[in-house]
Amino acid sequence: MSATALLGITGGIAAYKTPALARLLIKKGLNVQVIATRAALNFVSPLSLATVTGNRVHCDMWGDPLNPSVEHIELADSAAVAVVAPATANIIAKLSHGIADDMLTTTLLAATCPVVICPSMNVNMFNNPIVQENLSKLSALGHHVLAPDSGFLACGWEGQGRMPEPEIIAEHVSSLLGPKDLVGLNLIVTAGPTEEPLDAVRFITNRSSGKMGVAVCARAKARGAEVTLVAGPLKVIPPSGIRHIPVKTALEMRERVLEFFPEVDAVIKAAAVADFRPEVVYQGKLKKDRIGSDVRLTMNPDILRELGELKRNDQVLVGFAAETQDLVDNARKKLETKNIDILVLNDVSRTDAGFDSDTNVVRFLYRDLEDEQMDIMSKEGVADLILNRILMFLKKKRNPTG
Description:
By secondary structure, this protein is an alpha/beta fold. The protein has helices at about 20-25, 45-55, 70-80, 90-95, 105-110, 125, 130-140, 165-175, 210-220, 250-260, 290-295, 305-310, 325-335, 380-400; strands spanning about 5-10, 30-35, 80-85, 115-120, 145, 150, 160, 185-190, 195, 205, 225-230, 245, 265-270, 275-280, 295-300, 315-325, 340-345, 360, 360-365, 370-375, 375-380. Helix 1 (about 20-25) links the parallel strand 1 (about 5-10) and strand 2.
């Protein structure tokens, strides 16, 4: 019997994408039960959704008086996973405060399964501190919040607020139902950029959003691992249920990673650490005409190399190489010189993958195995592949004759 996914649809323009989302969930083997708010039915028809799913759309809290049932409890009890897409500011506020005044909110309040929230709204609404506080609360309560995409919005504004594409949502929903094959493992993941201060207002950084490292954390947690995230300033919300250690500089990141390194089974070094930092940090704002003559840079410590030197035989070290030219040659040098078990080569010159994107095109490099070139895929998909390879290496290291 197929596992059931609840698809909650609320009153946003992105609701027109939900028949496609329902179809993708069905292709992943899920029985989709749709719960729509009355506002949602202004954007998508019950007939379209029922035709795609093969199930009637649930909207009325009171049901058929001739056939009484506690339908919201039955739906909540049957669900293996729930997803709210699009999730308007209104539904986000209701869920974060436990309000249950319609079929969708009442069902979700009774659900004990994982819940995926897919915000979709105007960029200013999304950035409103109240909405951000509500999303943070839902994340802290264990809900899975998928950050909205950026781009042209239906309201005419441009910015963050677009519902993630159905393919991304379906992959994330499906992943929550995967195996718990990492139970008992302890991982460190680094993510995001570092910020190296120059003076009171300026710093050196890079374009890393932290999406890849956060995706690894989310998938590792979903698969049962204990996860410590050591991260620079992130552009995405880290998953709940992990140990999140925020840092700013490369030196701070090095200190915290080395602190926890002895106790972990593997390190996934996805952070984009600044190679250099200013030799002197000025207390005030440095005049721009002094920057060329007064600013000297010094090398930051190579955290990945240091971990490679300290690594025990039963630990796995995963490094990343973000390259734009001579990709494989540069990555192979990094693999050989830093005692890395797995190197994930990321082509950041592409416009459809890499920094700030929800997709990556990667190549896995090993010292004793053939390279593996992957097609374009979501960062969650890449994260699962990394975790699969870590499991493979751990088994080989700890049972070399098996």
